[in-house]
From TrEMBL:
It comes from Pelecanoides urinatrix (Common diving petrel). Accessory subunit that is involved in the functional assembly of the mitochondrial respiratory chain complex I. Complex I has an NADH dehydrogenase activity with ubiquinone as an immediate electron acceptor and mediates the transfer of electrons from NADH to the respiratory chain. One of its GO terms (cellular component) is mitochondrial inner membrane. Its main location: mitochondrion. Pfam families: NDUFB10 (PF10249). This is NADH dehydrogenase [ubiquinone] 1 beta subcomplex subunit 10. Keywords: Electron transport, Membrane, Mitochondrion, Mitochondrion inner membrane, Respiratory chain, Transport. It is a peripheral membrane protein.
């Protein structure tokens, strides 16, 4: 396109809708209603919403970084202290979920190592295999044979029985 356009050749076509000329001094009721709506409804709502957003921006809450305080273990609860029992049960469930995730993360690391190393996985992933064996053994010792409906009390009893068996084995070995 040339720089010096011939504006006479490319005239803007005339608009088909005529320009409304105000013939009355009475304001348009639609603009009046819009203005009233903006000041009565929209402005306060917008102000409150922006104020809430500013308050939330000051106090960010990341639910995935929530830190629970450690509560006493079930063995430390007094008899009849049902609130302590409930808190200990909730703490045990959180600990179990954390332990499950630890096992899953170590398992994923081993899978990634095997994928990365290919045929050399037996030599180069030995450390990950050993770590997975340790983690799964610890998880199995603590939570194994509890089933789906396992709870803190059955886990504590399992731990107590395991400790008693270890003491008996140690006593038999020393004699």
């Amino acid at each position: 396109m040339p720089e010096d356009r011939d504006w006479e050749a490319y005239k803007v076509p005339p608009t088909r809708t005529p320009v409304s000329e105000r013939t009355t001094s009475v304001p348009n009721p639609i603009t009046f209603v819009q203005t009233v709506f903006n000041y009565v409804v929209d402005a306060p709502v917008t102000f409150v919403r922006e104020w809430i957003e500013r308050q939330q921006a000051k106090n960010k809450f990341y639910y995935y970084h929530q830190k629970f305080r450690r509560v006493p273990d079930l063995s430390e609860c007094l008899e009849g202290d049902y609130l302590c029992f409930f808190e200990a049960e909730a703490q045990w469930r959180r600990d179990r979920m954390v332990d499950q995730e630890i096992v899953e993360i170590v398992r994923e690391r081993l899978g990634a190592c095997r994928q990365r190393e290919g045929p050399n996985q037996f030599q180069n992933c030995a450390k990950e295999v050993e770590q997975l064996a340790q983690v799964t053994k610890a998880y199995q010792d603590r939570y194994g044979d509890l089933g789906v409906h396992g709870n803190a009390r059955t886990c504590l009893m399992k731990q107590k029985h395991r400790m008693m068996e270890e003491r008996k084995a140690q006593a038999n070995a020393s004699q």
